[in-house]
């Protein structure tokens, strides 16, 4: 997700422009949305298509689903194919993805119809997970059958805290957390050296994205999971950073 778009950072040329960019949260969000839609979204979607298909085939979505950081919504093509999906909540804080996300929701409804599946309620919440919970928009506590985190935990300021909220306040007993994330390469490798070197520049345009997070470990530590399956991704074509994919199940039924 990150390095596939980092090369486009030259679009914000000029020392003065970079200084302004480093100080403006909203401007960073705008720049990241533009770069992601221009360079990263389709490339990552295509490279990770097999991993996403296998993930949701292994443990199909059902019932109420919370998708964290939906972005422009390209992943909806995967999420809405489940016959047992009833209600999908898309939480996305970047306002510059909203227009594209609404288009993706419309296409998702069409896809459900083409597949002969029953209509599904798809809701967009323009904010963070914390804001969603504070607004009481989620209804009853721990009412989601599934939570999905696809290319988002890299940019959440405190992923361990948010994952804790997802575990405690969103997932019902027996529910599943699904994830597909880019992660830190092993220490001492060329990939890791490159990630560390690129991070200061990426901080200017990455909208909070961190290249060197140990996301697999964070997921394992955020809750008392009954079952957990985490594995590396073999992408369909080259991506410059490593990825992991998997699911974790909350105990109970």
From TrEMBL:
Species: Rhizochromulina marina
Taxon lineage: Eukaryota, Sar, Stramenopiles, Ochrophyta, Dictyochophyceae
Protein name: Methyltransferase type 11 domain-containing protein
SUPFAM superfamilies the UniProt entry points to: S-adenosyl-L-methionine-dependent methyltransferases
């Amino acid at each position: 997700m990150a390095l596939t778009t980092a090369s486009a950072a030259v679009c914000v040329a000029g020392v003065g422009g970079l200084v302004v960019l480093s100080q403006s949260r909203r401007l960073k969000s705008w720049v990241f949305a533009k770069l992601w839609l221009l360079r990263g979204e389709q490339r990552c979607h295509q490279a990770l298509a097999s991993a996403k298909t296998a993930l949701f085939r292994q443990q199909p979505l059902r019932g109420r689903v919370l998708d964290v950081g939906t972005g422009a919504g390209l992943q909806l093509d995967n999420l809405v194919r489940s016959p047992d999906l009833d209600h999908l909540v898309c939480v996305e804080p970047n306002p510059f993805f909203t227009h594209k996300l609404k288009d993706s929701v419309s296409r998702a409804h069409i896809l459900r119809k083409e597949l002969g599946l029953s209509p599904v309620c798809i809701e967009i919440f323009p904010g963070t997970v914390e804001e969603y919970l504070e607004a009481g928009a989620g209804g009853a506590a721990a009412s989601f059958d599934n939570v999905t985190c696809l290319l988002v935990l890299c940019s959440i300021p405190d992923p361990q805290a948010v994952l804790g909220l997802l575990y405690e306040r969103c997932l019902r007993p027996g529910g599943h957390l699904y994830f597909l994330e880019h992660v830190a390469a092993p220490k001492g490798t060329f990939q890791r050296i490159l990630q560390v070197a690129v991070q200061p520049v990426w901080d200017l345009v990455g909208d909070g994205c961190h290249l060197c997070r140990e996301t697999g470990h964070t997921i394992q530590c955020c809750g008392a999971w009954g079952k957990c399956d985490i594995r590396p991704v073999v992408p369909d074509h080259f991506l410059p950073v490593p990825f992991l994919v998997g699911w974790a199940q909350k105990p109970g039924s």
